[in-house]
Design a protein that fits this description.
Blueprint (H helix, E strand, L loop, with lengths): L4 E9 L4 H19 L4 E9 L2 E9 L6 H12 L2 E2 L4 E2 L4 E7 L3 H7 L8 E8 L8 H18 L6 E14 L2 E14 L13 H16 L8 E4 L15 E2 L4 H4 L20 H18 L5 E8 L8 E5 L8 H11 L4 H8 L30 H7 L4
Parallel strand pairs: 3-6, 9-10
Antiparallel strand pairs: 1-8, 2-3, 2-11, 4-5, 7-12, 8-9, 12-13
Helix pairs in contact: 1-2, 4-5, 7-9, 7-10
């Protein structure tokens, strides 16, 4: 991070956002394959628009997958259960356009090679207890709270679709305060004013009080600016308002734009696809380096080619915060972490049906939810190997 005063922004979206709806359908189908067939291969994409869900891609499995009912179940669980939201699990059409994986890909993956080429990145820093950047953690917590208050009927007027955004003021690399907060949530007509063009001021204040205040705490101050449904109203949301596609929220899924992204999406891909599994491994390595006290920030970049097991590239950048050189860190990582697809799958226990719950509110920083890439179990070993007291 640079010196001086600067601002960093990150956004998140709720589980009812059209793109996140697609991610969850794709990952629910992946989970159903893995429950029945741990060797199944899945590359599943979903598209939604008004009244329509299309599920496509490649699946090779010995099991039977009820794609249509899985998709409807995800839509229902998110909360699209009434026509007033513009999308309803009972009446939307669901089209299944899935076929088998290419045998040309399979012959490389079957012998332990990577399921694709590409670049994957992972990151950790010490500015939050989760070892994540503060802006994205706050954005996720705000979006999740919107959904929780909706489902608990605390704010009955909220709909499933929504977004959050947080801008944090930093000074000399440390977060100091929250400069602005954006909350955009689909809602029903009951909170509109007499003009019908804007939500009532009382609803705006209630959203700040019940959604934002418990999350932001003392980081928000008298100068913090709030933008609540800034256009005035958000009646039309979800797939009625915007098309959604799997894999379009890759910055929301990762680190909120703090580091560059390799480019590959996660949802709907089984762990032979290194777009997903190697990104999880890169987070695991970076987090253990920071947890070991070897750096305050750490970025890991991995590169693979389809069909080959060992990564072609391993880059580590500690942004000048490392207690040992990046060259020595690379040596430690190669010695203590198996970066082959099979090694990653084994180390992180990735053949379990855990993926649907990753598909909203970020894939990282969620230590209590059984995501094995969030473990800090190698921190002590790394610290000892680096001869750091």
């Amino acid at each position: 991070m640079p010196n001086g005063r600067y601002f960093v922004s990150s956004e998140s979206v709720t589980e009812g956002h059209p793109d996140k709806l697609c991610d969850q359908i794709s990952d629910a189908i992946l989970d159903d394959v893995l429950r029945q067939d741990s060797r199944g291969r899945v590359a599943c994409e979903t598209f939604v628009t008004m009244g329509l869900v299309i599920v496509g891609g490649e699946i090779t499995t010995t099991s039977y997958i009820d794609v249509i009912n899985i998709a409807r179940g995800v839509v229902k669980n998110i909360g699209y259960t009434h026509p007033k939201y513009g999308f309803d699990y009972q009446t939307c059409a669901v089209l299944n356009a899935i076929h088998a994986q290419s045998p040309d890909i399979a012959q490389g993956v079957d012998r332990g090679g990577a399921g694709d080429q590409g670049i994957m990145t992972g990151y950790a820093c010490d500015e939050t207890p989760e070892l994540m950047p503060l802006p994205i953690m706050l954005a996720h917590k705000l979006a999740k709270r919107m959904a929780e208050l909706r489902k608990q009927n605390v704010l009955k007027y909220l709909g499933p679709d929504g977004k959050s955004q947080v801008t944090v003021e930093y000074k000399n690399g440390k977060p100091k305060r929250i400069n602005s907060v954006v909350l955009a949530s689909q809602h029903t007509e009951e909170i509109l004013d007499k003009t019908g063009k804007h939500i009532k001021d009382s609803a705006r204040k209630e959203m700040i009080k019940k959604i934002a205040d418990p999350i932001l705490g003392k980081l928000a101050d008298s100068k913090t600016e709030y933008y609540i449904n800034q256009t005035g109203k958000f009646l039309i949301g979800g797939p009625q308002s915007d098309t959604g596609m799997t894999g379009r929220k890759i910055i929301v899924d990762t680190y909120g734009g703090i580091i560059s992204h390799g480019g590959g999406a996660f949802s709907g891909k089984d762990p032979t696809k290194v777009d997903r599994s190697a990104a999880y491994m890169a987070r695991y390595v970076a987090k253990n380096i920071v947890a070991a006290g070897l750096a305050k920030q750490c970025m890991i970049q991995l590169a693979y080619v389809i069909g080959k097991a060992e990564p072609l590239g391993l880059l580590i950048d500690t942004y000048g915060t490392g207690r040992i050189s990046e060259e020595k860190l690379v040596g430690l990582v190669r010695e203590h972490f198996d970066l082959t697809p099979r090694g990653i799958i084994t180390e992180l226990d990735l053949l379990k049906p855990i993926y649907n719950k990753t598909a909203a509110y970020g894939h990282f920083g969620r230590e209590k939810e059984g995501f094995f890439w969030e473990k800090r179990d190698k921190a002590g070993m790394l610290k000892k190997a680096a001869h750091i007291k």
